[in-house]
Specification:
Layout (H helix, E strand, L loop, with lengths): L22 H9 L7 E3 L11 E4 L4 E4 L4 E6 L4 E6 L5 E11 L8 E7 L2 E8 L5 E8 L2 E9 L6 E7 L3 E8 L6 E7 L10 E6 L23 E13 L18 H7 L7 H5 L10 E3 L8 E3 L5 E6 L5 E10 L4 E2 L8 E5 L3 E10 L2 E10 L10 E10 L5 E8 L10 E7 L4 E9 L8 E3 L2 H19 L4 E3 L3 H17 E4 L2 E4 L11 H13 L3 H14 L12 H18 L2 H27 L13 E2 L9 E2 L1 H20 L3 H25 L1 E3 L2 E3 L8 H4 L7 H12 L8 H12 L3 E2 L2 E4 L2 E2 L5 H9 L3 H14 L12 E2 L4 E2 L6 H15 E4 L2 E4 L13 E9 L2 E10 L4 E7 L8 E5 L10 E4 L2 E3 L6 E4 L6 E6 L3
Parallel strand pairs: 42-46
Antiparallel strand pairs: 1-15, 2-5, 3-4, 4-15, 5-14, 6-11, 6-15, 7-8, 7-14, 8-9, 9-10, 11-12, 12-13, 16-17, 17-18, 18-19, 19-20, 19-25, 21-22, 22-23, 23-24, 24-27, 25-26, 27-28, 29-43, 30-31, 32-33, 34-35, 36-37, 37-38, 39-40, 41-42, 43-44, 44-45, 45-50, 46-49, 47-48, 47-50
């Protein structure tokens, strides 16, 4: 618990050197020359000056010792001193001294504070060897920026310079004569007027829950060890008149500091390197059940089972079942976070969690099962609580499965386990997902449990063993892709004879058609055409009679739906299916054309920048209709691709008409984009909403928050040519001005990694596989639980705090796409294999194998074996046969970048290669490729 400690005036003692403590002296200081000091406090003596107040969490301490301010507190708790400021246009400098542990957002810093949720900060972090660190908070959001590296063994002066329209962050090591400007921003509107407080120490606050307390007096939910912070001196001076205005070109971009540091090192990014930068996500949750079942349950971070009951009003409500052990029936895991958890065989939706209780080792195994694994039969949670006695004496251990919030209300299972020294025994039970009062818990014998477990294991082994198969040297990815498939199948609910891809389990229990369309798309890529077809049928059934599909995500639903229909045909070549769904597809295209005519019919006078665009609700989080490039571009691309497919299927008349309409649509969108591009800080920027700049205005024209997750969707649509001015503007703005963290797209100070897929994939199109690998590993390290691969929507990187939206269907979908794109992707009429396989994957003795991957050209399989110790790589490629690509590009990113010297194909010399790629003709059958790097 945190408390506020304010020193009463009577208890305050003046420090050795304090000038300007009274308002009259401050006013006099303003009238003096710019160099004169308004405040200098060297913390002489033994106590704080009378104008300082100490605020700290319980158990913390603030003292003055030998000319230094000394703060002792737990990491990620608040502990600081503060004093009124009362004047604008000031420059604050503080001498920071090395301490222990800096605790990310709560690190030892100097702050200027206006109000709860409106403040700036400059401090030092010990992460990554040490660097300066700045924070701006306003409007409920936080922008954190890791700045230049610094020497943690030295004292450093930190300075915040406040001007009329500018905030500058500067620093210099003690004894160094020159200040170094680290970051310059335009002064936000929320920081108008004089700051309320100058704060030294550590704290945090957004002005909203869970960090709503004023004056930065908030603690993180999981405080760390005790750490120390020191300051040697603080000064306040007027900002010189010559520095009170922002200078042209002065604002410094906030690049991806952590990501750039990793990319600057030799070789490709490595998972362990990426995963060591920030803490893992804090709140774990796995959904368990069976494929397509309308019910599924979850296991929470404390090891309880999230089930469904009925409250006094007859409404459905969550009920939590808990395994308890011992005489006091202590909860499994002690009631805290259970960190030791894995999936059966690394990927099946059977959770195995481990904990200890004194001499007892506990293992909780949980899975979902219905009769015949049918989506129509009731779902049960099968539970085994196994206890092993590691003590030297026999033990009798009570165990119980119950609902602690209402003991016995739904029934319970209990027993006594008699354990010899070193012996084990287990309680086996099953719990109905939909609880019935007094009758939902059943104790079962081991054979019954084992039979259900074996049936479940066999079902998922068969289900996940079909379609595209991936075998790569990275053990995490080798497991994770199958776990993502399983979680997504559990998120799908059979409802009224159709299968609805819901975005979550127990949350987002609705269909977001954009997400569902992308999910069908990736299932097609993995050769799971039957499922893709069933889920597309659900979307078609929801399409309105006038042709529109707007199902929770606005017009983005409609565009992604059109594109997914076209992609299903491109990945299957199923002409009969396309002919069958053509009326729905054509109606969807015609809706777009009619709507564009309506929009144009409203115009008078000079055409606006939005000419030819459709104004509609853009996506699920915003309900107000807007002109957005994202939903318009997606609709246009969907029409173009459907027209191509319809023409191949012989539906020439509709194909020609839709192609002509799409060409006009593209012309209008591109003309609008060219007009909407504008110059910002010396660069071209493309707004997502051309007439309002709404997303940019919300972030003071930085590529943050919604801009940084919506812009990648535009890149994902492949509407823009890779080298177009518009694509360059999007990519460089995101990459160079703080729109990415560790290669994944930023959102609210963290990452919403799945929405950044288009940005990462664009890096490959630009020939930057290292950046793609960085983003994929960031997703793996921070976008999901590290042991069970449960994908989450948003993770706050610097604290590890995350939403409980996991496992999230959209995240699982784009994680699958990221891995597939790394290994198999199309670029126009070329098929590219292993475009972004990390170099370490071809270390001596390793191999990469892909079997049954669908492509626009048909099924492709390949295996690459490394004999790098001999300077040799051997590959076998079974090319697609349905449609001939222009070429098959086999990229070999070997451990040491060396050029290929010679190639043979089926034992014959081959001349079509460059330093890293072998270009295979499409007309060959299965081939053996031998690549030599020795001169």
């Amino acid at each position: 618990m945190s408390v506020r400690r304010t020193r009463p005036d009577a208890a305050r003692v003046a420090a050795g050197r304090v000038w300007g403590g009274a308002a009259a002296l401050l006013a006099l200081a303003w009238a003096q020359a710019h160099a004169s000091a308004m405040l200098v406090d060297g913390f002489d003596g033994t106590s704080l000056g009378r104008d300082w107040t100490a605020d700290m969490a319980l158990g913390s301490a603030v003292s003055v010792e030998d000319g230094r301010l000394h703060i002792t507190a737990r990491e990620n708790t608040f502990a600081h001193i503060e004093r009124p400021v009362g004047s604008d246009l000031i420059t604050v400098s503080a001498l920071w001294e090395p301490g222990t542990g800096t605790g990310a957002s709560w690190c030892s810093s100097v702050f200027l504070y206006w109000a709860p949720g409106d403040w700036v900060q400059l401090g030092v972090l010990d992460r990554g060897g040490g660097h300066y660190y700045a924070v701006e908070t306003g409007g409920g959001g936080t922008t954190e920026t890791d700045l230049a590296a610094c020497d943690l063994t030295r004292r450093h002066w930190l300075r915040i310079e406040l001007g009329r329209d500018v905030v500058r962050y500067q620093a210099r090591p003690e004894g160094h004569p020159q200040w170094r400007t680290l970051r310059v921003i335009g002064r936000p509107q929320g920081l108008a007027g004089a700051p309320k407080l100058l704060v030294l120490g550590k704290g945090y606050g957004r002005g909203t829950a869970p960090y709503a307390a004023p004056d930065l007096d908030n603690d993180y939910a999981d405080p760390g060890p005790v750490v120390e912070a020191w300051f040697g001196e603080v000064r306040v001076q007027p900002t010189p008149a010559s520095r009170q205005r922002l200078r042209p070109g002065e604002i410094t971009p906030a690049s991806d500091v952590e990501g750039d540091a990793i990319l600057a090192r030799p070789g490709d990014p490595v998972y362990d390197e990426v995963a060591s930068v920030f803490p893992p996500l804090q709140h774990v949750r796995e959904a368990l059940g069976t494929k397509g079942h309308p019910d599924e349950f979850a296991v929470t971070e404390v090891g309880s089972l999230e089930l469904m009951g009925t409250n006094e009003k007859g409404e459905s409500c969550a009920v939590y079942a808990q395994a308890c052990i011992g005489a006091g029936l202590r909860p499994f895991g002690g009631g805290g976070r259970v960190g030791d958890r894995r999936l059966l065989e690394g990927y099946m939706p059977v959770l195995i969690a481990k904990s200890t209780d004194g001499d007892l080792e506990l293992e909780l195994t949980v899975f979902g099962h219905s009769e015949g694994l049918s989506p129509d039969a009731p779902l049960w949670a099968y539970v085994r609580l196994q206890v092993t006695n590691r003590g030297a004496q026999p033990a009798t251990v009570p165990v119980r499965l119950d609902t602690p919030d209402a003991p016995g209300a739904w029934g319970a299972v209990e027993g006594q386990l008699s354990l010899a020294a070193g012996g084990s025994d287990a309680l086996h039970a099953r719990i109905a997902y939909r609880l019935v009062k007094g009758a939902s818990f059943e104790r079962i014998d081991r054979p019954c449990y084992d039979a259900a477990l074996e049936e479940t294991r066999a079902f998922w082994a068969a289900e996940l063993g079909r379609g595209m198969q991936i075998d790569v040297p990275d053990a995490r990815l080798a497991e994770a892709w199958r776990a993502w498939l399983a979680y997504n199948y559990i998120d799908v609910d059979q409802m009224n004879g159709t299968f609805e891809p819901h975005d979550g389990s127990g949350f987002y229990e609705a269909v977001f058609a954009y997400s569902a369309a992308r999910y069908a798309w990736v299932l097609d890529q993995y050769g799971r055409h039957d499922d893709a077809e069933a889920y597309l049928a659900t979307l078609m059934a929801h399409q309105a009679p006038d042709g529109l599909l707007d199902w929770n995500s606005g017009l983005l639903d409609h565009g992604a739906y059109l594109a997914a229909l076209a992609e299903h045909y491109r990945l299957t070549g199923n002409t009969e299916w396309l002919r069958d769904v053509a009326p729905k597809a054509v109606a969807a295209c015609d809706w777009v054309t009619r709507r564009r005519l309506v929009e144009r019919g409203r115009l008078t006078g000079t055409p606006p920048v939005t000419y030819g665009l459709i104004r509609w609700r853009p996506y699920c989080d915003y309900f107000e209709p807007v002109y957005s490039y994202v939903h318009n571009a997606y609709c246009c691309v969907g029409m173009e691709r459907l027209a191509d497919g319809l023409a191949e299927a012989g539906l020439t008349r509709d194909a020609q008409r839709i192609a002509a309409d799409a060409a006009l649509y593209r012309r209008d969108i591109m003309a609008s984009m060219r007009r909407a591009l504008f110059d910002l800080r010396g660069r071209q920027v493309l707004p997502m909403e051309p007439d309002t700049h709404r997303l940019l205005k919300a972030t003071q024209y930085r590529p943050k928050d919604y801009y940084s997750i919506i812009a990648p969707i535009l890149l994902e649509a492949h509407f823009l040519p890779t080298e177009s001015a518009e694509a360059r503007a999007l990519e460089s703005f995101l990459r160079e001005e703080g729109g990415t963290i560790l290669g994944a797209c930023e959102f609210g100070g963290g990452i919403d990694h799945a929405y950044g897929y288009g940005y990462m994939e664009h890096q490959l199109r630009l020939g930057r596989p290292e950046r793609y690998i960085l983003g994929l590993y960031a997703s793996l390290a921070y976008g999901m639980s590290r042991e069970t691969y449960s994908g989450v929507e948003v993770t706050m990187l610097r604290t590890g705090d995350n939403a409980l939206t996991l496992p999230h269907l959209y995240s699982g979908t784009h994680q699958l796409m990221m891995l597939r794109t790394m290994l198999v992707r199309e670029e126009g009429d070329d098929l590219i294999l292993c475009d972004a396989a990390p170099r370490d994957w071809l270390a001596p003795g390793k191999h990469i194998e892909v079997r049954g991957a669908e492509s626009h050209f048909g099924v492709v399989s390949f295996r690459i074996d490394s004999e790098w110790g001999r300077g040799r790589i051997v590959a076998t490629v079974d090319p697609p046969a349905r449609r001939r690509p222009s070429s098959i590009v086999l990229r070999l990113r070997v451990p040491e970048p060396r050029p290929i010297v010679s190639v043979t194909v089926d034992g014959k010399p081959w001349k079509r290669f460059d330093a890293e790629c072998v270009f295979l003709p499409a007309g060959l059958g299965p081939v053996r490729v031998e690549v030599d790097y020795n001169r």
